[in-house]
Every structure is written in C-alpha cells, then in structure tokens.
Structure prediction request, 586 residues.
Amino acid sequence: MNERWEHFFDEKHEIDYPQLTMFQLVKKNAAKYPDEVAYEFIGKKTTYREFLGKVELTAKALTSIGIREGDAVTICMPNCPQAIDTFYAVNRIGAIANMIHPLSAESEITFYLNISNSKVILTLDQFYEKIVAAREGCDHTVIILMAQVSDELPKYLELPYKIKNFGKYSNLPNQAYSLTWKEFLHYGSKFPLPLPKIEFKVDRTAVILYSGGTTGTTKGIMLSDLNFNACALQSSVAMEVPYEKGQKILAVMPLFHGFGLGIGIHTCLVKGICCDLIPQFTVKTYAQMLVKKKPNFIAGVPTLYEALLRTKGLELANLSFLKGMYSGGDSLSVELKTKVDKFLKDHGAKIQVREGYGTTECVTASCLTPSNDYRPGSIGLPYPDTTYIICEPGTTKQVPVGEEGEICLNGPSVMLGYLKNEEETRQTIQKHEDGRYYLHTGDLGAMDADGFVYFKQRIKRMIISSGYNVYPSQIENVIDANPKVLYSCVIGVKDAYKMQKVKAFVVLKPNVVPDDSVKEEILSYCRKHIAKYAMPYDIEFRDELPKTLVGKVAYRVLEEEENAKIDQEIAKAASEKKPEKKTEKK
Prediction:
C-alpha cells in the first residue's frame, strides 16, 4: 500500500487478490446475498441466485454449440441481461469475451471477428442484418446468436412491445448459421454433461477490449481475470463503497467500454450492488430515470454531467439518495466540476463529483480524487497497489516532482498485452530500473509532492467525443480511399455537448469539383466504414492544407483555426443577446 495514499483515508487497506476467475469471485460474494437484486432491466428484477442460474444455463448452451476453453465469443450488445449473462457464462467455461460496439461499422465488425477468431457473436435483432453482412467477410465460420429486447421484458410489457415492433426483423434469422436466443437456451437446457471446472490462470486472456494503443490504430487489449478482479477490488476501496443492502447503480456506460464493464458492472456485482441496466438513453430520459429510480451511484463522462446541468425537469429534484458520482472517459474541467458540485449541493446531495483517470490498457480507472481532498486540476491519487511515475517521453527516466512528462503506471490491472501485436506491446509495457514493468500511457502529466497526479494532454493524437476515443488516422484512411480524394485531415472541434466533435478537411484531386454531391458521396462511404459516434459532422473542402516544416499536415493549425471561429461565434452571440427588461411592481 502506498503510504502517500493512506494519508488521505481513514483506514489502512490491505487488498487480497484471490486466485479466482471473474465468475468465481462474483459467485463467491453472491453467496452472501442470494436474494438481493443483481440487475434490473426495464422493471424486471433478477436476484443473484437467479443470475447465477442464468449464467450456468448460458454456459451450457455455449458448450452445446461447441465453445470450449480458449475460444472467443464476441458480444455486440447494449446493456441488456443477455449480454451480462453471456459475459459471465463465457468466463465460466474459460472462453474469451470479445467486447465490441453494436454501432460499429460493418467492416469494423469483420475486423473484430477475424482478429479475435471469434466462433460466435451475440447481437440484437436490430443489428442482425449488419452482422450477417460483416460475417461474409470472415475467414472462418461464425455462429450468430440473435437476442431480442422482448426476451427479457416483464410479462406485462411483452405484448405492447411486440405490437409496436410488429413486422420488424420478421425474416430473421437465417437458420443455416443463426440461432434465436430462445433456441440457444433450449440447447443449454438439454445439455446432459456437467460443465468443466476452470482453474484460475494469471496469464489467461479473459476479455478483449479495443482501443487505439500508442499509434492510433485499433488494437485488441488482452485483459485477464486478475486485471478485472483487481480493478473491482481496488475501485471499491478507493471509492469507499461498503456493502449495504439494496444499493443501486444506474448502469448507462456501455459494456464494450472499460468504464462501463469494469466499474458499472463487475465492481458492482462483486460488491452486491444492483446494476440497473440502461440500454439506451437521452439526457432527458436520463434525468427522468435519475429522479424515478433514485440510484445511489452514477458513473458517466463529463458530457453527461454538463448536459444534466441544462436539462429541464431537475429544478426541484431531491438528490439526497446519491452516495457517489464518478466521472471518467475524458478530463473533467475545474469549471464543470465546480458547477456540478453546486448543482449537487443545491439539490440535497452530500457528495461531490469525483474524477477518475485510467486507460483501457488497465481495464479502466486506476487513479481517483479522494472524497475529502480535491486539488484543482488533479485527477487524484493512484489506486492502492498501483504505482504512478512521470517519465521523460520516450524514455524510462523519471522527472523531478512537479515537472511534466509521460504518465506511466504499474499495478495488477495492467493488461497482458495487445492482441497479435508484440511490437506495440513492447513499446507500451517497458521494464524500468526498479525491475518492474510499467504501462506507458501516452499521456502527459505531472505529480506533486503528495502524490496527486495532474493530467495535461495526450501525446497520442486522439479525439474524445462523448467519452469515446476517436482516432483521426483511421477516419483519414477511410476518406483517402475515395478515388476523388487527394488527402485529408481530421480534427476535433469544440462542442458544448460532446466536448469535441469530428470534422474533416479534404483536398480533392485535380479537376474534381468540390460540390455537395461529392461531399455526400464521401459521407455515405464513411457511414459504411466508420462507427456512428466517430462520423465527421462536416467535410470542408480546401485547395491545400497547412503543413509543418517537415511537410506533414499541421492539424494543430486547423484545430486552432476552427476553435477560434467557435469562440468568436459564442462571443458574438453573447454580445447580441439583449438584456431582459425589468418590470416595476405596481
């Protein structure tokens, strides 16, 4: 335990990391509260006892269709019970959960299936046709499991849902390579053999999440049972979350995101907290759910909290039920934290929003601001059993206290490596003079004398839009593939809601007229190959783009130009706004 860390907490904490798989740890702890609610979905509650039974059934169904230890199963789902059951069932039989975004483009899904060699993919009926098309590009056989929201609705909502969605997806699925969720579970119920006993292995890949790595190209991040269990146990200590009967989290962060899976699901299930699964939401519906469901914990990106401040319907809300609010996925500005903290106080909450920092390469958060000591601009203190150091970028040499450098960290949640990419793994996880291996995050930061960490900026060129990582080089590759494009540059532009939105600058080939039809042609091509959250909101044609001295496109110049325009527009709008006339009382 880090002595600096202990100074800011009331008790010393020694964490025991049991040699258990994720499923085994949840099962062990669930024995303490079998009749508590594990998760809730649109009003339907599932107890821990029922949840464990559903996992066993799903594990048998997976085994019945040929999935064995070490096989990969892709989960392409929003926050639904089938996704949770399958995630732990995959772990139950020693297989690998390959977690991907259901809004991923067709070509991206093909890539995820191929690189992981997934034998099965679970998805919802609304994404089925896209999955079928993605499957055609695979170099191996893939079984599609098609679930429906109606499979998990309370009885009184099944008929209204079916009437509302009558006729949709009626031609699905193709029996040659697909199973409905109900057919799949039927196989499990008829499976005659006991499931194999899976032994804990510290170096076994249990989960694959995706990120850009150090180069901005898509990388599969191999994470172990220890990585996830350590994240859960460390988080519960750092977040100061003791077990109390009936506690609930509003689980809106998606499962393919380390924050959503590691904190919103696994940490909570390990601690006996009910996960209220939210598959889709808008800020307006989120505000309504917040008041109606009264969760004790919420976790989200800064975008969400900024939007809540502007949402109507919360003016008279009493938020005294909140015990913890956590922000991650992007930097929480000092200004926004101040506003959110005031909002909480004005609405009866006795807490402040706490900012976490981490990377998918260590599941999610590995640093958090203490509840009793906030330092403006700081992302807090490293988790227990996690060491942060600041090094000169590109080296393993530490810089003096207070100086800026690359954030590097060591701890039990650090990934096993990048899938099928040993070179980038070597670049990212490096051995230091103390003999330990550190994860080089690609982020610049500093640390003060008390061990508080301050995030500065990303060394990697990356856009954060609504908490999701967007990698400009990937989008540029797609745009540049168009035969009418000479070259392009993609940047992040300030946005009041998303924090950043994606804009593309394009130089067309000679004799190509830059009109709306060409723009739509490029955007249409992008929609087929780029995830919805990463789509450019606009394309601007230029005769040429600014260059650096070595001939590279000066994307920072474009960023400065665009953000300056936005600042001018905001200032102009503010100056033109007429003051309200005061009326005198008679």
Observations:
- Residues 555-576 form the longest helix (22 residues).
- The radius of gyration is 24 Å.
- The chain is about 35% helix and 25% strand.
